[in-house]
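can u do me a favor
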């Protein structure tokens, strides 16, 4: 077992919909209105296409409205408060930038599910000893914070093509390398009211221990 990705053995419907998860996510206007073909030049020039692609690549859903009662109950039964349901869409053959979630790197857990992206990989990195902290905070399309790293700042620690649900470490540098298939990630962020903050991976493993095989 590692401290980056821990598969959890439970199976609950995520969204209140008759559609498949992918069709449901593609029916969201924020995705459908902004999905577009993006060239390498678009990425380099921060063109309107790039900006639209960014909006379709990271958006949030109204979790109270769309998550099933089963999922809400699951978190509640384990003493956890959902506060965000984020969707990450990765275009084919696209690798996302290396980043840690939040303003300050640390030890934060989420539960993620992957749809599509059959040959994708999530990578986790260790910051090199020679790394000098830089002010590389940036705002995501949903106006949350992340801290960016260059490939020179870090060394690869672990990679996995997980399907979910899985407990995921997002406080250390990580990114996605996508392959030949579109990839959606449904990501639920939660807080523990007893702790007054997000659980660390070790704490989350304890909270959800009966689902770890
Ligand atoms: Fe992230």
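np, heres the sequence
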């Amino acid at each position: 077992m590692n401290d980056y990705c821990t598969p959890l053995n439970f199976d609950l419907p995520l969204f209140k919909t008759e559609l498949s998860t992918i069709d449901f996510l593609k029916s969201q206007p924020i995705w459908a209105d902004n999905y577009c073909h993006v060239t390498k030049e678009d990425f380099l020039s921060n063109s309107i296409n790039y900006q639209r692609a960014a909006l379709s690549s990271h958006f949030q859903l109204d979790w109270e409205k769309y998550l099933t009662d089963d999922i809400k109950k699951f978190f509640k039964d384990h003493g956890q408060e959902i506060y965000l349901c984020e969707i990450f869409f990765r275009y084919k053959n696209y690798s996302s930038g290396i980043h840690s979630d939040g303003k300050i790197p640390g030890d934060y857990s989420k539960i993620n599910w992957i749809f599509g992206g059959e040959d994708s990989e999530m990578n986790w990195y260790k910051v090199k000893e020679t790394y000098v902290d830089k002010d590389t905070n940036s705002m995501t399309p949903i106006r949350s914070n992340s801290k960016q790293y260059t490939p020179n700042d870090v060394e690869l620690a672990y990679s996995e093509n997980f399907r979910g649900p899985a407990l995921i470490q997002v406080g250390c540098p990580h990114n996605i390398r996508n392959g030949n298939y579109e990839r959606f990630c449904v990501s639920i962020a939660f807080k523990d009211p007893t702790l007054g903050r997000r659980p660390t991976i070790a704490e989350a493993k304890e909270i959800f221990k009966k689902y770890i095989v």
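DSSP finds seven helices and twelve strands in the chain. hope that helps!!
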